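Dear U.,

Please find below the material for section 3 of the report. The protein was modelled together with S-adenosylmethionine; I have listed the sequence and SMILES used, followed by the predicted complex structure.
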Amino acid sequence: MESWLKAAGAAGLDDLELADFPTTGRGVRTLWRFKEGERILTIPSRSLWIVQDAYVDLLLGPALRAVTGPPLSVEDTLALYILFVRSRESGYEGLRSHVAAMPTSYSSSIFFTEEELEVCAGSSLYTVTKQLKRTIEDDYRDLVVRVLLGQHRDLFPLDKFTIEDYKWALCTVWSRAMDFVLPDGTSIRLLAPFADMLNHSPEVKQCHVYDPVSKSLSVLAGKDYEAGDQVFIYYGPIPNNRLLRLYGFVVPGNPHDSYDLVLATHPAAPLFEQKHKLWSSAGLDSTSTIGLTLTDPLPNNVLRFLRIQRADESALAAMVLHPQIDVAAEKISNSNEIEILQFLVESFGILLDEFGTPLEKLEEQLAKGVFSAGGNAWAAAHVNLGEQRVLRLARKKAEDLLAAVKSGSSSAAPTARCANCGKGSVPLMLCGRCKGIMYCGRTCQVAHFKEHKATCMTTASKNV
Ligand SMILES: C[S@@+](CC[C@H](N)C(=O)[O-])C[C@H]1O[C@@H](n2cnc3c(N)ncnc32)[C@H](O)[C@@H]1O
């Protein structure tokens, strides 16, 4: 692989070597000292795996272009590309040398035994992994029909494209591909041979970069290195549940741990259409997955979602009337707020009860070495621990907010806002006639008059 890369114009390989390290396994060692920010490695465009190359490949390209129906995902295209290259007996020597250097198996949670997965029963990883296994089976069946048994079936010998091969290729993409946002706002996902041998460290800065002009991938030193050190890159602020699902490892005590809370409303629920509009304008959906984190265990989006979900008819009517005002960003009424906070406290309690082993017991088991360090069950236990910590913080925050609302000391009192422009933290005046809404000034009152006239008259006549 290294000689192919050097011939293609890769830079920096003479200063690096592959080596085995404790904990991380195989990685990259530097033979040279580097100061933070110095360039360590560059992999040129022609050695990268990208979707566009699969589509213009002389053999694979026509098969991919002949696929009918919805376009293949980037992930599936790269997975097929890798399996296709791996299946060839001649040609593609460079890419095949890269495939030969890839691991033959992975420790993503989709490969866990039932017993190993049970260690994180109750966690969002547990549910997501079970769902993912079903999705992979469906996606594989779809690929068989649309690609493997399609017009170019001779290119895809089925014994080299089994579901196990597909899972392996997907894990290859999940754990080795890099994502970048390009200056035009589009994104690119690529695999960079040799650079994909670099392990993750939370101790280094983000230091892998894609140059959209030369279309090459470079790795800079994310910290100072001495000769002999392992070189790392930073995969991102990824929680353990995602690390284990995509990369097959965890970082004990991960500060980015999270719990993926799924909030859903059935379309048959009362006033669904109106609520749906409000969720959309708040950047949410009728089924929203919101990440609770250690630093923000109860994000405002959770409250926003529920305020809309539990809003009564009159509150909804007022919200729909002023779509420019993000009313659900703050408490809409005491009763609504108490209802949603009570619901959250109870729900978090139920979710916590679903974890097979309580937090303290798990901490004790990990300290006693009940799970062999670095193994699948040990990794699942760390995910379990992280998710329970987040959920406990979320429950505590909901309890505190509930107590504050009940005692009337809530800082989340609804903010009066201008009915026209939505400004809240400015002096406001009441509509002199109906006394039902407020404006930040005469200009807004005049601008809003046409819209407000009808309600103003009815409310004013009621007020008489
Ligand atoms: C991009 S590859 C890095 C090279 C990989 N170690 C190899 O031998 O091919 C990512 C994989 O490396 C391993 N890895 C990376 N960083 C790690 C870390 N901090 N601790 C444990 N394993 C790590 C995981 O298996 C992960 O899926």
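For the text of the report, you could mention the following: Residues 383 and 412 are 33 Å apart (CA to CA).

Regards,
Y.
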